[in-house]
Write a structure and sequence with these properties.
Distance between the termini: 57 Å
Number of strands: 0
Order of helices and strands: HHHHHHHH
Strand content: under 5%
Largest sheet: none
Radius of gyration: 21 Å
Number of helices: 8
Number of domains: 1
Length: 174
């Protein structure tokens, strides 16, 4: 009987933990995202939606800018998870690759811009503490992370775009 009671308590604690997590989101991340969305939309309205769309159309026209500069702008200025909203300016066919690129860049940006993805800061700080113990400068690490992140974004963007185009071409051929 005790085993069944423990299983039932464990099962219910799963939902209690889920409820606490949800409550944490409702009181922290959801209001932050709503405020960031309001801020971003306000800036777009102040600058002018046509101007913003023309500027981003120029950036997203070329894959190299779309997969390097756009995720930088999104994550540095908006942070994670709001950085994903930069995809609103992309064509539908480019969104899968942009999602991959923004997710890829969320860690390398942390060394230079810790606000961009505070959730990944513990990973960077763990590596940084090892670098500090070796007596090496952290600035070099942060810049190398950033540059490697940009290079990986470009590579992943092109690869994901190619896979997406291949799959959609195969799907439309059926």
């Amino acid at each position: 009987m005790e085993v069944l009671s423990n299983i039932a308590q464990g099962f219910m604690s799963l939902f209690t933990t889920g409820g606490k997590t949800f409550t944490g989101w409702v009181t922290s991340i959801i209001p932050m995202i709503v405020c960031l969305l309001t801020f971003m939309n306000s800036i777009i309205k102040l600058v002018g939606e046509d101007r913003v769309n023309r500027f981003t159309a120029k950036l997203t026209k070329y894959a190299i800018l779309r997969y390097t500069l756009m995720p930088m702008i999104g994550l540095i200025f908006l942070g994670n998870p709001m950085g994903y909203s930069i995809m609103r300016f992309c064509d539908e066919k480019d969104k899968p690759a942009m999602f991959d690129v923004v997710a890829t860049f969320a860690h390398p940006v942390t060394g230079l811009f810790p606000h961009a993805n505070a959730g990944e800061l513990f990973v960077y700080m763990g590596i940084a503490s090892g670098i500090q113990e070796l007596g090496l400068p952290l600035g070099d690490l942060a810049i190398r992370y950033f540059i490697a992140g940009i290079i990986m974004c470009a590579i992943r963007g092109y690869i994901t775009q190619g896979i997406y185009m291949h799959l959609t071409a195969a799907e439309s051929a059926e």
